[in-house]
Amino acid sequence: MADGDTELEARLVEQEEFEPSEEFVAQANVSDPAVYDEFEENWPDCWERAAEMLDWDEAYDEVLDDSNPPFYKWFTGGKLNVSYNCVDRHVENGDKNRVAIKWEGEHGETRTYTYQDLYREVNEFAAALRDLGVEEDDVVTLYMPMIPELPIAMLACARIGAPHSVVFGGFSADALATRMNSADSRFLVTCDGYYRRGDPLDHLDKANEGLDGVDHGVDATVVVDRLGDDGFGHDLKGNQHDWDDLLDEHAGERIDPVERDAEDMLFLMYTSGTTGQPKGVKHTTGGYLAYAAWTSHAVLDIEKEDTYWCSADIGWITGHSYIVYGPMALGTTTVMYEGTPDFPNRDRLWDIIEKYAVDIFYTAPTAIRAFMKWGSRFPEQHDLSSLRLLGTVGEPINPRAWKWYYKHIGNEDCPVVDTWWQTETGGMMITTLPGVKKMKPGSAGPPLPGIDAQIVDTSGKRVDAGRAGYLTVNKPWPGMLRTLYNNDERFIQEYWQEYSDVDSNDPDDWVYFPEDGAKIDADDYITILGRVDDVINVSGHRLGTMEIESAIVGVEGVAEAAVVGGNHEVKGEAVYAYVITEEGQDEDDEMRQRIIEGVEDAIGPIARPEMVVFTPELPKTRSGKIMRRLLEEIANGEELGDTTTLRNPEVVESIQRQVEGE
Ligand code: ATP
Ligand code: MG
User: Fold this and answer.
1) DSSP SS3 for 492
2) Torsion, Cα of 159, 161, 165, 169 (10° steps)
3) Cβ of residue 274 lying under 6 Å from some atom of ligand 1
4) Are strands 73-76 and 526-531 parallel, antiparallel or unpaired?
5) Which of 299, 393, 402, 422 is the pocket-test mutation for ligand 1 (most atoms within 8 Å of CB)?
6) Which residue intervals define the domain Acetyl-coenzyme A synthetase N-terminal in the entry (predicted)?
7) Residue 571 is part of which domain span?
8) How far lies 596's CA from each of 218, 256, 545, 555, in Å?
């Protein structure tokens, strides 16, 4: 630990299981262990419990239509509107003055939207979109940073039945163009710029460059004026409209929420592309919202009286399901912030938690590792006692980071939910129900009620407790992706082919394959080992990249490491290590040697890195994951695949130069 080595800390290091407090359990939304059996015995009708959390315009006929696997349909015949469920019904039910969004900008400015405020702006913007020619089923692209206009635009799209495709604001012009082309999207909502570490960034310039790469006509672009006087003086082009002008023009207008079929598309989300060409994941209206609402209730334990904060970006699925749709379906207060955790200071997040008395906090291991590196003195400057529950998502969290989070943020008083899920799953799949289950740091937990996840070997047979294998999901669930946009074939190929009998029409023969390795223990707790392709085969030995990285990070002076396999004439593959050192550490042969020895000591000579490359940064996705595919391509001197989904594309060239210079 960075600081504060106490007896307590020593005890935590040893402890492998943690129980939620009685106080937490007593107030938890779900605390009856029978929920697991109830879901299993009553499957698939158990999912009515999720559907009942929504208001339907027309009741559904069937919970699940599995007549054409893997093209499952949920709540068929049902009709509903997502913006009605996330906004109108709270206004109608006496909660119009409850705060929906608490927004905190980089310079400390704040904006507060009650559900009534949200209702007004969502309606006005929906009216504006209609007026600009957006029709039901037209895909609207939203290329925006973390400003309130982003969720407002999402809800306005949902109101008129226009699916949105949110492109992470940090992505390049190219990434925007590729996605607009892929989705045939003729409408764009963006902004002039935003602040990052104190400086205004020119976003519209990037958006315009992206628009130049769109190979069909673009009917209209809406531009939010975020920067005001700090702006870059852009003139809007002929088909570009100012957000505020549009709202003024449509002030007070009301748009009836369009009745959408449960299976109509709500949004497209292109996955981050850690492993290759972005995939247009299609999510629908009924199943997705029911699943986001149910998991927000059962796992995040959200109640409408809470102040809830997920510090992710809305440009990532986590922000869709657990900043916008899940929390707002429950009518709670959701916090949004612009910027980064270390600007203006490294206590930014703790400052926000204290200021708004946040009850529930959900973040990613990449952030927790940074907090740990900075040290516990930053959270210690703040009163975090309002917190009741903590969550993490995005990567495996190592026990040391889990315990740091549990102790220094949660004061050993808040359950931690380590939630495994994917863009494709729509919502959480494997994690503890915090009011029911004990926690085991490092393990996500058992599959949620109604989720049939198993760990199998290459032939699809279940592996024994303690053995590693491949994670599969053997039954459909309401939040699942329905297909890849315009590409049913790739949908089957990417996710089903591996373990399914693709010629069968029997749903029992269809198995979803998330492409993650995992192991399971005697209590059914699943530990995710990482992506299947993050395995290096050295002379026939299969080595997990995570294990080698752990060994390297254990060497004094190392801050972070990424390991990939590079082609090797003799060994098949060899270990390439990319290392970020701590400030003040010399990057010399002595350091290289210590790293190599560290790996040999921890794992064995077989894992000995062939090459150690020092780098100031690693290529990362919007969710903070290392893009190992790129590092592998660099190691092999191959042409680089898609780099448009990096949040820091400039590091690639500098790493390339170093490897070539070695
Ligand atoms: P792409 O699919 O485009 O390569 P991606 O997989 O990084 O990108 P996401 O859908 O955001 O895009 O991430 C899902 C993946 O993240 C999971 O398949 C898993 O590998 C990892 N993951 C998410 N949550 C956890 C968790 N709690 N524990 C371990 N791994 C996790
Ligand atoms: Mg993935």
Assistant:
1) helix
2) -20
3) yes
4) unpaired
5) 422
6) 34-86
7) 534-660
8) 54, 65, 15, 10
Q: Is the CB of 531 under 6 A from ligand 1?
A: yes
pLDDT confidence of 5, banded at 50, 70, 90?
Answer: very low
Band (644; pLDDT cuts 50, 70, 90): confident
3-state SS, 147-212, equals CCHHHHHHHHHHHHCCCEEEEECCCCHHHHHHHHHHCCCCEEEEECEEEECCEEEEHHHHHHHHHH
Quick check: is 569 in a domain? yes
Side-chain half-sphere of 553: how many Cα atoms within 13 Å?
17
Assigned domain for 609 exists? yes
Which residues lie below 8 Å from residue 25, measured CB to CB, with a gap of 6+? Answer: 31, 435, 436
pLDDT of res. 294: 98
In a domain, residue 272? The reply is: no
pLDDT tops 60 at residue 1: no
Beta-sheet pairing, 360-363 with 389-393: parallel
**CATH number, domain containing residue 567:** 3.30.300.30
| 260, part of any domain | no
**520 beta partners:** 526
- Give ipTM to 2 decimals: 0.99
Q: How far is the CA of 120 from the centre of ligand 2 (A)?
A: 37
The residue among 238, 248, 128 whose CA lies nearest residue 189 is 128
Tens of pLDDT, residues 241-257: 999 999 999 999 999 99
The number of domains in the chain is 1
C-beta of residue 143 within 8 angstroms of C-beta of residue 182: no
**CA–CA–CA angle 161, 162, 164 (5° rounding):** 130
Interhelix angle 203-212/173-182, rounded to 10 degrees, is 50
- Read off the pLDDT of residues 260-278 as tens digits, 9 standing for 90 and up: 999 999 999 998 655 567 7
Task: Identify whether the C-beta of residue 615 lies closer than 8 Å to the C-beta of residue 658.
Answer: yes
Residues facing 267 on adjacent strands: 164, 283
Is the beta carbon of 416 within 6 A of some atom in ligand 1? no
